[in-house]
Amino acid sequence: MWKIRVAVMCLVAALVLLAIAQTDAQSGPRSETTAQSASRAEVGPVASEGRIGSEGRIGIDAEFVRLAREIPGFGGIFLDEDGTPTIYLVDPGQQNAAVRVLTSRLGGTLSARGVNLSATRVLQGQYDFLQLAAWHDLLSPVLGLPGVVFTDIDERQNRVSVGVEDAEALRRVEEELATLQIPREAVIFEETEPIRPLQAPPASLQDRGRPVTGGLEIEFGTTSGQNLGTCTLGFTAVLSAGDRRRLFFVTNSHCSRIQGFFDGARYWQSNITPMDFIGTEWEDPPFFTQERVRSCPPGRRCRYSDSLLAEYAPGVQVELGTIARTFLPNIDPSGGDLRSLLIDPENPRFFIRSQIAFPMRGDVLNKMGRTTGWTQGKVTRTCYNANQRNSRNTFICQDQVTAGVDFGDSGSPVFRLLTGGDEGDVAHYGILWGGSGGTFVFSALENIELELGDLLTAD
User: Fold this and answer.
1) Best CA proximity match to 239, nearest among 42, 443, 15
2) In whole angstroms, what is the distance from residue 129 CA to residue 158 CA?
């Protein structure tokens, strides 16, 4: 089994090639005491702080801060509607110097993605990314206000943005802004729906599938067999630091009895019968608060990903490094195109060939979920802090894609189609956990590994 990680200091941080895992999962789930201890001591937020850095930043925002320290007046980079790399500079006269730095840092990586930095377009920026990041940090407390959905450094508009449910929430944030010493013109507001966890009620329309692979329906419930809901299996993985004969799968933490707590939830695919039982929760890291991690807003409880690790039951036929493949993407906003739900018998699998730490705004990403099937769209927000509806939960540095989604899609694998290789080759980006208004929100792989540890996910 092998793994190659290529660390990229900006937009795309980890390219991993992985290999062969055996399917004879051994030994049962750990006790609650042991699992909770491991969450805190091995892969929990405190243990992860060394990987996050002194400023508490992760993801693409951390890379943009580094670039802003090398490029005077750098306000961020994104891909426009045509895929053209576009940067904000406070002084557009620094274009040549900026492109030189970007080329030295990102040229090879972006070239492999079909992005030509020599065609970079420069926009007049009003603020550099260091200013925006500092104001975004100051805005953290507003996530504790009723009706606030997210805060974000919007690299497409060179502003800090706040998502609110209604005018009353906007008014509350504006009152808070007056005390925060942030220029009002640097903040934009967007009215948006709350982000809902997308597990479905206990009813299944999807078939049992073997071997088990990413994108298939799973049912979750109690040790006594009570069905609590329906979600989607994200991906199969091997813990790189553990016994490589033991296979696990990743899905959402809210696809369990208690979110952010080891409760021994059990999983079936797709009926609650002994023959459909596939595994048991093994790791579900706890939430943390501002007392433990500074980036968590006051009064909220936080995680970096909505994820948990479950161990496959002995004897379950499993495929490592694959995602179920349907006939075509679903472009019907109502989710009514059945061809995106039916697995293509001629091409039943996507194959994970690389692992990407986090996305770039403008990337075209896909998800495979049990309710709306295969949908795709562009990344429209990166590394934003998102509140989960009807809870005190805030997820740090999440990403958003404009694409179809509905209840039951929670846990869906998020991926990009690779060019230049086989048609079924994909790069894996993370798992979906919520959505609103024709968009879905997902936790990037970097965030997942901060909490669950390094994962081997592909052949």
Assistant:
1) 42
2) 8
**Nearest CA among 319, 350, 330, 342 for reference residue 423:** 350
Q: Where are the beta strands (DSSP E) in 19-147?
A: 74-79, 85-89, 121-124
Instruction: Please compute Rg for the chain using Cα positions.
Output: 21
Q: Which tokens go with 337?
A: 């195109």
Round to whole Å and give the CA distance between 69 and 38.
37
Q: Domains of the chain (ranges plus CATH)?
A: 3-52+197-456 (2.40.10.120), 59-122 (no CATH), 129-196 (3.30.300.50)
Q: Give the C-alpha distances (Å, rounded to integers) separating 318 from 88, 227, 312, 324.
A: 46, 23, 8, 12
CA distances from residue 288 to 210, 253, 276, 298, 368 in whole angstroms, order as listed:
37, 14, 34, 11, 30
CB 364 within 8 Å of CB 378:
yes
**Which residues share a beta bridge with 266?**
221, 280
pLDDT in tens, 359-409: 999 999 999 998 889 999 999 999 999 999 999 999 999 999 999 999 999
Residue type, 22: Q
Q: Is 33 helix (H, G, I), strand (E, B) or coil?
A: helix
Before 204, cis peptide (omega within 30)?
no
CA distances from 443 to 191, 234, 261 (A): 22, 11, 18
Question: Which among 209, 280, 255, 227 is positioned nearest to 27, based on CA atoms?
Answer: 280
Closest CA to 343 of 323, 358, 365: 323
Q: Quick check: 74 pLDDT over 70?
A: yes
For 275-323, how does the pLDDT look when each residue is reduced to its tens digit (9 = 90+)?
Answer: 889 999 999 999 999 988 888 999 999 999 999 999 999 989 888 899 9
